Amino acid sequence: MALGRGLGELLGEIESAYETNNITDKNEILEIDVNNIEPNPYQPRKIFNEEKIKELDAPQLPRVLDEVDAAIINTNYALSADLNPLKDAIILESKDSPYANIVVVKKGNEEKEYIKALNEVLNSKEVKEFIATKYQGSIVEAF
């Protein structure tokens, strides 16, 4: 048995093991000697067929999850596709991620009243509570 060739390959080998051992009850648990498992020499891949790799725009990613092994999806697109990052993600960025959204203003506009007001609102206790309540941890505030 070779690992790293996909679940279909693994299940196919399990089916074959049932047939080889004349096991008719497929609810029976098969024990496989770990010494019979060999790593796939082609994994991890080092050479990729560039023609088969397709770059997609971020909003398309949730719609093609069934067709890919993995995807990196921004939270806003995951949420709009009814995915729950806390349940559906394999990896989540931490609160300390350097990729937090930040407010940037043109030099000289720092002291304008509407910029100060926007900054105050975005960093308020109310906005923090809104994010916590609405997104239940799927979006982590960075302030």
Strand content: under 5%
Overall spatial form: elongated
Can you list the strand order of the major beta sheet? 1-2
Can you give the mean pLDDT? Answer: 79
Helix tally? 5
End-to-end C-alpha gap: 50 Å
Instruction: Give the biggest beta sheet.
Output: 2 strands, parallel
Number of strands: 2
Which secondary-structure class do the elements indicate?
mainly alpha
Count of discrete domains: 3
Low-pLDDT runs:
1-5
Oligomer: single chain
- The SSE order reads EHEHHHH
Q: Report the radius of gyration as a whole number of Å.
A: 24 Å
Fraction of residues in helices? 25-40%
Structure description:
With 143 residues, the chain is mostly helical. It folds into 3 domains: 38 residues, no CATH class; 39 residues, no CATH class; 48 residues, no CATH class. 31% of the residues lie in helices and 3% in strands. The protein contains 5 helices and 2 strands. It has a two-stranded parallel ribbon. 1% of the residues are buried.
Nutshell version of this structure?
The protein has 143 residues and is mainly α. It is 31% helix and 3% strand. The protein has helices spanning 7-20, 75-80, 85-88, 113-122, 125-135; strands at residues 2-3, 38-39.
What attributes characterize this protein structure?
mainly alpha, 2 strands, 3 domains, 143 residues, two-stranded parallel ribbon, disordered N terminus, 5 helices, elongated
